[in-house]
Specification:
- It contains 12 helices and 7 strands.
- By secondary structure, it is of the alpha+beta class.
- It has one domain.
- The two termini are 17 Å apart.
- 33% of the residues are buried.
- The structure holds protoporphyrin IX containing FE.
- Protoporphyrin IX containing FE is lined by residues 14, 16, 95, 97, 106, 116-117, 122, 130-131, 133-134, 141, 145, 160, 162, 204, 215.
Length: 271
Amino acid sequence: MSPVHRPWEDAADFSIGLRPIAPEAWLEGGEADPAPRKDALLASAGDLVWAEVVASREGQSEVLELVEAALGPGEPRRDLPPLLAAARRTPDDLCLMEKTQGAWRLTALSLSAGTFFTASEVVGKSLAELHGPVNGFSERLLTRVQRIFEGLRPDLVLERRNWTVVNSTELHTPDPAPIRARIGEIDLRDAGQALQIRVERQTLRRLPRTGGAVFTIRVHLAPLASLADRPERLAAFARAWRSATPEFRTYKRFDLYDGLVDAFLASASCG
Ligand code: HEM
């Protein structure tokens, strides 16, 4: 089945791409009980998937309130930091952003599906620092993103999506190195199944009481081959792959996948 979110049909370059959605659509759902998956990761991966700064507990509690307002009250977990209790209720990863020392900073996060970063390395960072590795972010996007955080109205829920291609079916991918080391083992004929389109659906909303904001990240994976049943969708992906800007391609290491994607597109177009 073709992926639900197809952001490559909108852009093959870095973009803000935030659009308002209905508040009821804030959390997509779709995973019956994310708690066991997240609990197991917390037990085995600890600070790769959870981090907080001490002063963030009030903001965390407000995120839990919003999640409970959206999903209904859950079993109280006063033994857990409130953001962690909230994250166990939803498939999405939850990031608390608060303005401290003049900058919007990431003050707590539950990150069970990180795309090549870890909770402990990003906690406390400002928007500028978080996006340091993204080519051109500070010149092209940072000021606008900061303004969006400043102007976020409490009744507004914003959504954006991004995409990349990876050879991993794992949601929890803190480190690209072991994944990329396996690219050479993939047979060209298996590229459509071995390569996954990795889409992040992200949302942003204000925390009206404490003044912070909650940023959610939900990862969806689908094999490239899932595009093959709809010729127009296959063609749209091929266009995006071939027209992606050099900065976008470099950041996402598309060069490592070019041969495999070309082989997949050639076989799917003839099939
Ligand atoms: C809401 C406005 C935001 C915009 C427009 C934005 C935009 C981007 C873009 C364009 C990228 C490059 C990957 C891609 O999306 O194609 C990126 C990467 C990233 N963003 Fe954001 N972002 C936003 C908010 C946030 C927030 C609130 C966090 C806090 C967790 C965050 C954390 C990151 C991280 C950790 C990366 C990966 C950087 C790396 O490669 O090390 N972003 N963002």
